Amino acid sequence: MVNEKIRAKEVRLIGVHGEQVGIMSAREAQIKAREADLDLVMVSPNAHPPVCKIIDYGKYRYELARKEKEAKKKQKVIEVKEIRFSPNIDGNDMNTKLNNARKFLAKGNKVKLTLRFRGREMAHISSSRHIINDIADKLSDVATVDKPSKQEGRSISMVLTPIKDK
């Protein structure tokens, strides 16, 4: 809320240099803001009475945007990378996929291991479950099991989380 859009009858006014001016009507506060060639901005509408400040509104919006941008910089987005296997995977292919999983975990991403079954492979799901558990064991030095292996339709999946260094 800025200038004439402020509908409150009384407001607590904070001056140009951050000093408390006191409680007054919104009209008086707008007049003081005009005299200073600045805007009257409602900073805390939920307070009783609402808190208004005499500031340059454009500069205020710029500062808010800058603070928001700084907060976004400090956030860490964790992605879930998926690695797919088949039950009849060869040793070298397995090692390549394990190395990729290690790279993802080193970057701090979660890894979803998916063992996919096609056609006649569906008849041997129980005998292939050890593959995904072996992969988790091989990655146990860099990851912990976040979600244990679970069958979902034509696949078995498991989620690994990187181990945090202390």
Automatic annotation (TrEMBL):
Its main location: cytoplasm. GO terms for biological process: ribosome disassembly. Residues 78-162 form the Translation initiation factor 3 C-terminal domain. One of its GO terms (cellular component) is membrane. Keywords: Cytoplasm, Initiation factor, Protein biosynthesis. It comes from the Bacteria. Residues 2-71 form the Translation initiation factor 3 N-terminal domain. The keyword Glycosyltransferase does not apply. It is found in: Cytoplasm. InterPro entries: T_IF-3_C_sf, T_IF-3_N_sf, Translation_initiation_fac3_CS, Translation_initiation_fac_3, Translation_initiation_fac_3_C, Translation_initiation_fac_3_N. IF-3 binds to the 30S ribosomal subunit and shifts the equilibrium between 70S ribosomes and their 50S and 30S subunits in favor of the free subunits, thus enhancing the availability of 30S subunits on which protein synthesis initiation begins. Belongs to the IF-3 family. Monomer. This is Translation initiation factor IF-3. It comes from Candidatus Weimeria bifida.
